[in-house]
Amino acid sequence: MVENTNDAPDIKIVVENLSIDYAGEPALTGVSLEIPRNEIFGIIGPANSGKTSFLNCVNRMDDMRDNMNVTGRVIYDGIDLTNWRNLYALRRKIGVVFPLPVGLPLTVYNNVALAPRLAGIKKRAELDVIVERCLTRAALWDEVKDRLDSLGSLLSGGQQQRLTIARALSQEPDLLMLDEFSIAVDPVTTMRIEDVLQELKEEMTIILVTNLVQQANRLAEQTAFFLNGRCVEVGNTKSMFDGNVSHQETKDYIEGRFG
Amino acid sequence: MMFAESPLNKRDKKTQKLFRILFLMMVMLLVTPVLLILATLIYKGGPIISMEFLFADPRNGMTAGGLFPALLGTIWLVVVALICSVPLGVAAAIYLSEYAPDNWLTRSINLAIVNLAGVPSIVHALFGVGAFVIFMDFGASILAASLTLAIMTLPVVIVATRESLQSVPHAFREACWNMGATRWQTIRKVVLPNAISGILTGVILEVSRTSGETAPIMFTGAAFYLPTLPESVFDQTMALAMHLYVVATQVPNVPDAMPYGVALVLISVVLAFNALSISFRIYLRGLKKW
Amino acid sequence: MSGATASQKPSVLADDQPDTAWYVDKAVQVIMFVAGVSAIIFIIGIFIFVSKEGAGFIGGEEMNFSEFFTSPRWRPTSEWNPTYGILAMITGTASVTGLSMLIAIPFSLGAAIYIAEFATGKTREALKVLVELLAAIPSVVWGFIGLSIMNPLIIDIFDVPVGLNIFNAGLILGLMSAPIITSIAEDALKAVPDGFREAAEAMGATRWQVIYKVVLPAAKNGLLGAVLLGVGRSFGETMAVLMASGHSINLPENIFDSVRALTATIAAELGETAEGSTHYQSLFTIGIFLFIVTFIINLTADLIVRGVRKG
Is the pLDDT of residue C8 over 50? Predict the structure, then answer.
């Protein structure tokens, strides 16, 4: 997949007129945007603006939920996701980190080794390498290396958050979606993870949903601003933060006047 | 007290105390007779309990000797019934908890489960005769009796398993699905390992239920008396619950202590498994896994 | 990982096609579905197989619907004039069930209220465990208790010739169904949100006023469902009534008369009948009747309880 990058198009995901509702209650309306490959794409916006629903739609979680309805198109690596038959294979390619950390009630080791095992890796030595690499990248290795056998679900909130990141990385995804990952993590660790993200974009595309506008400013090449279930605008992050925005709401939000 | 109590308040307090005592008495009236009965069983049946009573064959037209064939028969029946009902019941519960959408079919399944538990045991017996003894031609046998028991106690396994599966937070499933795990991989790797002890509680409860049933096995495989022990599932067998019915009502000149002894053994088996299930459940509640 | 998967999958595009895990998942889903539906299949199977064995009687000459339900004469073994009337058994079952409910309902609702609303901590746990253990006592043991403990007691205390009668069986069935009603009713009371209680207590209501004015009305449907399930259990009970009711065909005049129940008749007579005989088929017909009645009771209970969940 990495070896295909040369002849592959620059755009990882094309979203066309995407709308989402939960049992008739709209969460997202008419969103269209393009997410370039091997970049960090930021999504900012206040709570309930449809950011999380957008992520759930990209990895087709609507298929697992009775009440979630999606219209419009998401084109992933040139394939319309509505035509994607094996959604499990799709989700294996997409790592997700949600704001509420969920450490699975397995050992720390098995939390991180789960995805590789599902992908067919059985050799302990290989798994050991993956587990250590992912935990290190998620800035958790030093804290848990002596207790890999304790339950992941009993770690502290911040540790579970990083465990979730390690788990997403263990999938070796080609798309990583982070939803307010730093909510339970201290600032120093957040910085360490942000550095890792900068390295990771060599290998994968990253969608970074964040409630911290400065985080988007630091990391994202492009940023989308979501408000009340609409995508207000998409643009180059630097120029957006320099004030080149076409909507007053965007300016207000970036400057912290609401949200 | 910062404020003086008004007379009205005082009267209310009195009524409240009265009702509290009234309801407590109702609980006591429910519980006391049973404790008295248990005491009587132990008092009258206790003396006859011995190694011989448990491990010897009945003699002299079942008026002497022990109840070993009945005890062994009950073990046969319970084991075969569990082999049939546990996999099916667990699978049904997995369907209801993990797959079933909220539609008319799921509601019908739930209604069917309530009915399986609510149909009179003697109707289950008739079904066992019609379906297993006659239609499938197993004859009166351990297999026919166990299948009847299995269907009758299926709701016990289903309900316990479903409860146990649903106690695993939904967020764990979502987290697994997000990693690309299939529903089945999620169930196998995360949900089942965390529900297995709850399922075991249900299975133990089913042992308790199955070993006490009489009506469903009367015509499907349990015999009044057999000179030989069963050798395969196609043989008939004696059973503890049936044995109590037989020595209490069908055999003349049984010494007084005999049926009390059988009743004591039966109720001990049933209550022991039930208590085991309950204490296991309480122990599990104390374990914190998330 | 990318290396391992890339060798099996020639291009990125092939990833949307089903793989082994996908097929396994679908197969498992089908298996679980079949297992789930099996409960429905069994219920239908019970009706079909019991009806199949009873069909000869229902369609046959011996069967006369009005006689079946209105005649108290049950003489299936009579050589020259067998009669098949189950009225006496219906009366027996009804009287025993009725008495058992008179005993069980007030006590089990009272006990449920005590456990759910008054008892706390360890006491509450202990009482719940005790109720659960009571519900576990096998019916044949209850029958034996009726036969050997209650029988002489009733003869002594009430000075009646026979202690195996409506009173004995009703008392036994009452004790049997009480724990079941108690635990379901307790669940129904616990299902009333604490907010209701707190709101009423904030207005100065005492605990009893809260229960009487707020909790009981809110839990009404659940309690009714509990009572109905108790009725169903009592109605369908077999071994205990067989052993404690006296088992004599009788239109009872008072509660110290012996009676015979529908369920007990099947249990006592099926072993003595030849497969396919009219007597045998008539017992299965009683089985169909029992099945239909309990089905209606359970369905009603289910609808009532579901009503409370929606509301």
Answer: no
Report the CATH architecture of C87-310.
Answer: Orthogonal Bundle (1.10)
* Domain membership flag for residue A232: yes
> What integer pLDDT is reported at residue B267 of this predicted model?
94
Q: Domain ranges in chain C?
A: 2-59, 87-310
Residue B222 is part of a domain; what is its CATH number? 1.10.3720.10
Residue pair C69/C90 in contact by the 8 Å Cβ criterion = yes
Alpha-carbon distances, residue C171 vs B160, C101, C117, C154, C213 (angstroms): 30, 9, 27, 11, 31
B247 occurs within a structural domain: yes
pLDDT in tens, C147-186: 999 999 999 999 999 999 999 999 999 999 999 999 999 9
B246 domain-assigned: yes
Least confident of A127-141, B27-41, B215-229, C256-270: B27-41
C78 Cα to chain B: minimum distance (Å): 23
- Indicate the residue of C107, C141, C238 with minimum beta-carbon distance to B215: C238
- Whether A33 maps to a domain, the answer reads yes
* pLDDT at residue number A259: 64
- Helix (H) or strand (E) run with residue A17 in it: strand A11-22
- Judge contact between C172 and C103, C-beta under 8 A: no
> What's the number of domains chain B is made of?
1
- Nearest chain B residue to C295 by CA: give it: B115
**How far is the CA of C200 from the CAs of A35, C203, C208, C220, in angstroms?**
56, 5, 11, 18
Residues of C numbered 21-50 whose beta carbons fall under 8 angstroms of chain B's beta carbons: which are they? 21-22, 24-25, 28-29, 31-33, 35-40, 42-43, 45-46, 49-50
Ranges assigned E (strand) in chain C: 74-75, 83-84
The answer to whether C219 touches C191, Cβ cutoff 8 Å, is yes
Q: What is the ipTM of this complex?
A: 0.89
The whole domain housing A83 covers 1-93+205-259
- Give residue C1's pLDDT band: very low, low, confident or very high (50, 70, 90): very low
> How many domains does chain A divide into?
1
Contact C108, C179 (CB under 8 A): yes
B170-212 confidence digits (pLDDT tens):
999 999 999 999 999 999 999 999 999 889 989 999 999 999 9
Domain of residue B117: give its range. Answer: 64-285
Is a pLDDT exceeding 60 seen at residue B75? yes
CA–CA dist A237, C104 (Å, integer): 73
User: What are the residues of chain C with a beta carbon less than 8 Å away from any beta carbon of chain A?
Assistant: 1-2, 4-6, 11-13, 15-19, 21-22, 25
CA separation (Å) from C69 to A26, C89, C278?
60, 10, 17
Each residue's pLDDT tens digit, C264-283: 999 999 988 998 888 999 99
Q: CA-to-CA distance for C253 and B259, rounded, in angstroms? A: 32
- Encoding tokens for residue B215? 């009506």
A65 falls within a domain: yes
- Cα–Cα distance measured from residue A176 to residue A98, given in angstroms and rounded to the nearest whole number: 11
CATH number of the domain at A20, please: 3.40.50.300
Q: What is the pLDDT of residue B7?
A: 54
Between CA B231 and CA B80 the distance in angstroms is 13
- Decide if A135 is inside a domain: no
Long-range contacts of B5-12 (CB under 8 A, 24+ apart): B12/C206, B12/C208, B12/C209
At C307, the pLDDT band (50, 70, 90 cuts) reads low
Please tell me the predicted confidence (pLDDT) of residue C65: 77
When CB atoms are compared, the residue of C40, C46, C118 closest to B127 is C46
When pLDDT is averaged across residues A228-256 and rounded to a whole number, the result is 91
